[in-house]
Design a protein that fits this description.
Blueprint lengths: L3 E2 L24 H13 L4 E4 L13 H17 L4 E5 L6 H13 L4 E5 L12 H12 L3 E5 L5 H8 L4 E5 L4 H13 L3 E4 L10 H9 L4 E2 L9 H10 L4 H16 L11
Parallel strand pairs: 1-2, 2-3, 3-4, 4-5, 5-6, 6-7, 7-8
Protein name: Amidohydrolase family protein
GO molecular function: carboxy-lyase activity; hydrolase activity
Organism: Hungatella hathewayi DSM 13479
């Protein structure tokens, strides 16, 4: 089965590594990308997407320069990846002008994925502030896709509702009450998808249950590597009671469609 991991976090330096138990290793530069690729291909994953984020010891200094450095690391990894990696990038509502300029810069470099946005990171922020609205209006003009960390409050709902022409992908199904909340949001907003990274997929039947309610076209495979073991997510999807067509959509076709990429064009499943 072809697999695109829509939600992972690569790293170029040890300070950007988010794994909890294994050390990042001595690799640097292209060797880091080769290590990531080896890990993912060993799990059966053929392409990865996501942003570079600071590790647990990273201190937010309140400067967009720090976010830009993470974004440039993502571009560097893309250039080292031989087509294996689609980068995501950071924006921040405290830096409207800089964020819009970053959207323009990334669009020039063929990057259409914003996020994962995380409201408790980088000093904390709201998804639905007026400043974020201005940034997302620019994102809409460039056909961006916005990945965001799911929240339990209505902040994300307001963001998605105000920008119906943008495609949003919420991260992490969560436990049962949160799954129901996520599905209800997706029922309300046709421009909202859900990736399977993080908590949730370990619960038997969660994916088939969700697909029966909303259709396979609304879900994307994701892992949150290197925090999580990617092989567990691969087999979690393969084990679920889905049709071959539904599995293809979740594993790679939906990601190709919304990102406008063609990783497996002309290829059959294998």
């Amino acid at each position: 089965m072809n697999l695109i991991d829509f939600h992972m976090h690569p790293y170029l330096t040890g300070s950007q590594y988010t794994g909890m138990y294994l050390e990042p290793g001595p690799e640097s530069g292209k060797n880091v990308m080769d290590k990531i690729r080896c890990d993912m291909e060993r799990a059966g994953i053929s392409h990865v997407c996501g942003s570079v984020i600071g590790g647990g010891n990273t201190v937010w200094k309140g400067s967009f320069h720090d976010l830009k450095e993470l974004n440039r690391s993502a571009l560097g990894l893309k250039n080292m990846s031989d087509g294996f990696y689609t980068p995501g990038f950071h924006i921040h509502p405290e830096f409207v002008r800089e964020s819009i300029e970053e959207i323009e810069y990334m669009a020039e470099h063929g990057v259409r994925l914003i996020g994962e946005l995380v409201p408790y990171a980088h000093g904390g922020y709201s998804y639905s502030s007026g400043a974020m609205d201005k940034i997302l209006q620019a994102a809409e003009a460039y056909g961006m896709v916005v990945s965001y960390h799911s929240t339990d409050d209505d902040d994300a709902d307001r963001m998605v509702e105000r920008h119906p022409k943008l495609t949003f992908v919420a991260a992490h199904p969560g436990e049962k009450p949160r799954v129901e909340q996520r599905l209800e949001r997706m029922r309300r907003y046709d421009n909202l998808y859900l990736d399977l990274s993080g908590t949730g997929l370990a619960r038997l039947g969660i994916l088939a249950y969700s697909v029966r309610r909303l259709g396979a076209e609304r879900f994307l495979f994701g892992t949150d590597y290197p925090i999580n073991n990617p092989a567990m997510y691969v087999h979690g999807v393969l084990y679920e009671a889905l049709s071959d067509r539904e599995r293809r959509m979740i594993c790679y076709e939906n990601a190709e469609r919304i990102l406008g990429i063609h990783i497996f064009e002309g290829e059959g499943d294998h």
